[in-house]
Amino acid sequence: MKIGELSRETGVAVRLLRYYEAQGLLSSHRSEGGHRHYDAEAPAAVARIRTLLAAGLPTKVIRELMPCFAGDGTELQACVLDHLRAQYAELDARIADLDRARTALGDILDASTRALAPA
Alpha-carbon distance 113 to 72, whole Å? Predict the structure, then answer.
């Protein structure tokens, strides 16, 4: 299938499909005229990429995970579960950092509001 067909089938912009290919997440074959052609599994690969991006994984990690899918869905082989757990723990740490920053900012806003309030 051509890139336009893949775009229509997946709802992903042609520009993003080219980006996925440049990042090594998606592969195509070139025709003699230089047009990209994707195999029948490309829509499933795009769906997997979108799922992993939605999970907050960077493209570098996704590239490492793409060959590790078990079946047609989003299930991954056991050998990469530790990697996913590490990404999960990193997200937890970032959430905790953001929560502390939000609390600190709220404290500053509260103190500033009280200081500016008429006596």
Answer: 55
